Amino acid sequence: MDPGDVVERFREYLRDHNLPVTHQRVDIARVLLQSDRHLSVEDVTRELRRSGHRAGLATVYRTIELLVKCGLVVERDFGEGFKRFEPARDIPQHEHLLCTTCGRVTEFRDERLERITTLVAETHGYLRQRHRLVIHGVCAACRSGAPPS
Amino acid sequence: MDPGDVVERFREYLRDHNLPVTHQRVDIARVLLQSDRHLSVEDVTRELRRSGHRAGLATVYRTIELLVKCGLVVERDFGEGFKRFEPARDIPQHEHLLCTTCGRVTEFRDERLERITTLVAETHGYLRQRHRLVIHGVCAACRSGAPPS
DNA sequence: GTAATTGCAAATTCTTTGCACATAT
DNA sequence: ATATGTGCAAAGAATTTGCAATTAC
Hints:
By secondary structure, chain A is α+β, with helices and mostly antiparallel strands. Helix content of chain A is 44%, strand content 21%.
């Protein structure tokens, strides 16, 4: 999907719910929805400033909450002590590789995991809902001694 | 391994490192090492009080840090907003099933995951260190309409 | 005795909330 | 116009840290 379209989707969501389309909301949505990374709230605030916009921290949190609620953004917790957010792309389920040196996040998909987790859940009497897999390691750049980004 | 032995191991660790064996440290270790659950700091504090002991919150945090450092306890983050800790039993690597209704945690092991994660990491240029898999679902008790524990 | 720990309270970090002022429709 | 959002600063929750009093060895 075109990144611009996704921002438009958020506008529609706001209009449909009779919520004001403020420039802060649009700016924050643009940063988050057009990024291909997993941004922390701090990242979002920094990106905003870098593009000449600004919004209070509370507004950033509140807008992200809206974006999550309407399904355009997904919340992630990698156990770093804060949350990260990524646009909900068409990828229905994917896993994460997390570089323990620079924090880079890489996504991948492996159908075997669906199968295995469903099976394991059943074995233990659980009705499987979803799963979360994070592989911790050192990315290619950090292995070759590149400076942490 | 006998639970008592594990506490003895902690004593040895302290002695070997010329660290005082205080009753607080031993009490906290006993609670954490003899539990078969995944305890939060609050859980530990409550269990301490329940058994007639007490320790300042800071001491609990500091002792748990020691227990993690010496490898007798493992830290877990299930994205609940706080950490949980469990004794490092002989199970070298295991995964978790988390009941989204009652919070119950069940452990399991599946060697296929080692293989898959190592392979996937390599494919993306990462040097695999470890992984974390949590399957979210509804446990047998909650499925059969039992009251949440 | 002396060095390390303990406990408390203050500080930190991430996040949420209350409220006067500003803005979208 | 008016309902809602915004920003600030205060509140919260989990965790860490500084420091005087205490304890292990």
